[in-house]
Design goal:
This protein is of the alpha/beta class. It is 36% helix and 20% strand. It has an 8-stranded mixed beta sheet with strand order 9-10-12-11-15-19-16-17, with helices on both faces. It is elongated. The chain starts with 5 loop residues before the first strand and ends with a helix. This is Probable cytosol aminopeptidase. Keywords: Aminopeptidase, Cytoplasm, Hydrolase, Manganese, Metal-binding, Protease.
Length: 500
């Protein structure tokens, strides 16, 4: 794995060496605190490169002997509107990219308009951490080559020169834990299915106990006792046994109802007997992206000691093909007692979630449930790769999620739920069927199906098929797996559900 940069915070003074990164605003204006010599150097470089301080544009200059640093990098921050959280993350990713190969990098924590706030500095640092991530653990270069390349992938030390060191350090302490949750989610999604089996996945979830998460793992026998036949039906064609993993973080009063997050964890999806085309099937190792976001979120909440009671529930299965595999036309009975016609074995995620959602609301009586799932290709047709689909039975929860998405850049777009769509999943031989009557409204009928298993609990379903994997790269993500959902849901909890 690529080495993470070491993040430090130091007083606002010119470093003795290495790379210095400064931020320019409109017209390439630099902070006065940078000093006349460096400002003049930046001005000459800007003139040659026609640099005007436009957001994320940059110019570089090699310093003369005696100026203390080896290289000056100036990155523009002038934008049409005010910078938001994602803008600072992008800036941090750009810093990491421009400082590539340097052993020591100092980021000047002021702009012409004044000092950066601790929150802004923290977001830049997080952006640099996220940009530095690479999933390369299975590449087998020679040791010497790998060591040299590792030095080029991220700066060894990234120092932020700031006016208030302690405030910046405190702000970053919590943000770093959220970043670790994102990186964990990316790792899980990027792992191949022969490594991240249901057993191995459950084992990695169990490791969250090291950060204070209570973990409980239900095996097949226990799930059979609970009559989770919707989930078990998906798993029966695989040699890998199913698991239901329950994670609990208790950061508030014991009598406080928890917030709850539920994830689809299909570690590989062949489609079952309704088998997928071979082309692109390798990407189905990422069909557990919803569960990875839940695991990463629980890691983040525990790491930053969130003042909330939270529950994470993920159903882990492999949808495979053998003589025992579930057939089209089979009828299964979910934990709720609802009978389901399985008309397409490739619509398996909703079967897993049906039992996980019912179990979660029945046992924990949460304030709300949010489930995440790489559920439908139809959501990519509707929204592409820049928004996750949002469905909800509660307007307040939906708006809070939308606002959190706008703030973090992990955007969601609400689509409808309505009784009219229920007719599309009415069963011929059972209560309901697991697909609609054709290609129309595929993401909506999937959400209508899930809604049957939430009772009256405020609930939201996030279809992350287009955002959890193979989403467009950005300044702070170059990974196939994005870790989408961790920052979004952490913001939702922080702004509305933590004890003040």
């Amino acid at each position: 794995m690529a080495a993470k940069p070491i993040i430090e915070f130091v007083p606002l003074q010119t470093p003795a060496g290495g790379v210095l990164v400064a931020f320019a605003q409109d017209g390439a204006a630099l902070p006065a605190s940078l000093g006349e010599d460096l400002s003049a150097l930046a001005g000459r470089a800007s003139s040659v490169g026609q640099f005007k301080g436009k957001s994320l544009s940059s110019v570089e200059a090699v310093t003369a002997e005696g100026q203390g640093i080896d290289r000056l990098v100036v990155i523009g921050t002038h934008a049409e509107g005010a910078y938001g959280e994602e803008d600072w993350l992008k800036l941090g990713g750009t810093v990491a990219a421009k400082a590539k190969g340097a052993e020591s990098v100092t980021v000047w924590g002021e702009r012409a308009a004044g000092p950066l706030s601790p929150a802004e500095v923290s977001a830049i640092a997080v952006g640099a951490l996220l940009r530095a991530y690479e999933f390369d653990r299975y590449k087998t270069e020679k040791a010497s080559k790998k060591e040299n390349e590792a030095q080029e992938k991220a700066p060894a030390t990234l120092r932020f020169a700031v006016a208030d060191v302690e405030a910046a350090r405190a702000a970053f302490a919590a943000s770093q834990e959220v970043a670790e949750g994102v990186l964990l989610a990316r790792d899980l999604v990027n792992e191949p299915a022969n490594i991240l089996t249901t057993i191995e996945y459950a084992s990695r979830i169990a490791e969250l106990s090291q950060v204070g998460v209570d973990v409980e793992i239900l095996d097949e026998a226990k799930m059979r006792e609970l009559k989770m036949h919707a989930l078990l039906g998906v798993a029966q064609g695989s040699a890998m046994p199913p698991r239901l993993c329950i994670m609990r973080w208790n950061g508030a009063d014991n009598d406080e109802a928890p917030v709850a997050f539920v994830g689809k964890g299909v570690v590989f999806d062949t489609g079952g007997i309704s088998i997928k085309p071979a082309a692109g099937m390798e990407d189905m190792k990422g069909d557990m992206g919803g569960s990875a976001a839940v695991v990463g979120l629980m890691r983040a909440l525990a790491g930053r000691k969130a003042r909330v009671n939270a529950v994470g529930v993920v159903g882990l299965v492999e949808n495979a093909v053998d003589g025992k595999a579930q057939r089209p036309g089979d009828i299964v009975t979910a934990m709720s007692g609802t009978t389901i016609e399985v008309l397409n074995t490739d619509a398996e995620g909703r079967l897993v979630l049906a039992d996980a959602l019912w179990y979660c609301q029945d046992r924990f009586k949460p304030k709300f449930m949010v489930n995440l799932a790489t559920l439908t290709g139809a959501i990519i047709v509707a929204l592409g790769h820049h928004h996750a689909g949002l469905f909800s039975n509660n307007d307040e929860l939906a708006e809070r999620l939308s606002a959190a998405g706008r703030a973090t850049g992990e955007k969601v777009w609400r689509l409808p739920l309505a009784k009219e769509y229920d007719k599309l999943i009415e069963g011929k031989f059972a209560d309901i069927r697991n697909i609609g009557g054709g290609r129309a409204a595929g993401s909506i009928t999937a959400a209508q199906f899930l809604q049957r298993f939430v009772n009256d609990v405020p609930w939201a379903h996030l279809d992350v098929a287009g955002t959890a994997m193979a989403s467009p790269s950005s300044e702070y993500n170059r990974s196939w797996a994005s870790g989408f959902g961790v920052r979004l849901l952490d913001r939702l909890v922080a702004e509305h559900y933590e004890a003040k």
